[in-house]
Amino acid sequence: MTKKFILLIMVALAALNITAQNEQDSFRAYLYSNEYNVYLRINFYDQDIEVPGQPLYGQLPGYLGKKNNPFCWVIVSCKVENEKNAEMQLINDYGSEDLTATLTRQNDSIYVLKQKSGSNIKVPNKGKWMKLPNTFELKRSRK
């Protein structure tokens, strides 16, 4: 009886630790949208993300990239409001457009990016610019 009780306590403590770790890592992730072929690589805590092939930017909170294309939107600043909400400032890699957006964690695997103000997010798509919707979902990769 005592061994079962101790095992139950250990399982409960392990579950609490996993939950706390997930909340701490809410904004340290690789998120992607297969619908728009874009991804978001972020670490809002350590702000140590480098854009591949573009060392000029140095370490950043993250960036929004397009699959199979070097174009990106660079996250120049961010503010984590709580374990579910963050605000970020982005500029395109030419520096000609900027915007403010929020990133909201719906659950462990779904995030919602919502543009608040500024330019619209446009990414290259088959030789043309594709405007992303003001609000769209991203899924968290388990990499």
Mind explaining what this structure looks like?
This protein has 143 residues and is an alpha+beta fold. The protein is built from one helix and ten strands; from the N terminus they run αββββββββββ. It has one helix at 2-24; strands at residues 28-33, 38-43, 62-66, 69-80, 85-92, 98-105, 110-118, 122-125, 128-131, 135-140. An eight-stranded antiparallel barrel has the order 1-2-3-4-5-6-7-10. Strand 8 (122-125) and strand 9 form a beta hairpin. The radius of gyration is 18 Å and the shape is globular. Mean pLDDT is 87; it is low at 12-21.
Q: Would you identify the regions where 5 or more consecutive residues have pLDDT less than 50?
A: 12-21
Measured between the Cα atoms of the first and last residue, the distance is: 40 Å
Mean pLDDT: 87
Shape: globular
Pairing-aware structural class of the strands and helices? alpha+beta
Strand order of the largest sheet: 1-2-3-4-5-6-7-10
Number of helices, where a helix is a run of at least 4 consecutive DSSP H or I residues: 1
Radius of gyration: 18 Å
Q: What portion of residues is helical? A: 10-25%
Largest sheet, strands/sense/barrel: 8 strands, antiparallel, barrel
The share of residues in extended strands comes to over 45%
Q: Using DSSP, what is the number of strands?
A: 10
Secondary structure topology:
Elements: H1 2-24, E1 28-33, E2 38-43, E3 62-66, E4 69-80, E5 85-92, E6 98-105, E7 110-118, E8 122-125, E9 128-131, E10 135-140
Antiparallel strand pairs: 1-2, 1-10, 2-3, 3-4, 4-5, 5-6, 6-7, 7-10, 8-9
